[in-house]
Specification:
With about 120 residues, the chain is mainly β. It has one domain: Alpha-ketoglutarate-dependent dioxygenase AlkB-like (Jelly Rolls). It has two helices and eight strands, in the order αββββββαββ. The longest helix has 12 residues.
Amino acid sequence: MLASVIDRVRAEHGLEPNATLVNYYSGRDRIGWHADDEPTLASTTIVSLSLGEGRWFDVRPKGRTAAIRIKSGGEHLRGRLEDGDLIVMSGAMQARYKHRVPHARGDVGTRLNITFRQYR
């Protein structure tokens, strides 16, 4: 399965990943605001695959401190990542924005997030 995802990443997004990062979210686990802007990245494109329980995914401009929700036509957004969703963060995404997976409310199942990256 992962080999076909990597083939798709190469063909559709021009990324030659040489590393993956796997995050396991158990129930209400979260990951706080951050940008994947490590200086060792050879490409600013990061492709992220969600598996398992759906979770919210928030994006905000760097420098903002308040959590932001989707606003129609606005620059801030919140979207739902479901099982099998593949998102691509490229261009100035990591330089200009932060993202997170917030705490889930109530009882939720587990989720895996696999990111594909190209390091130098």
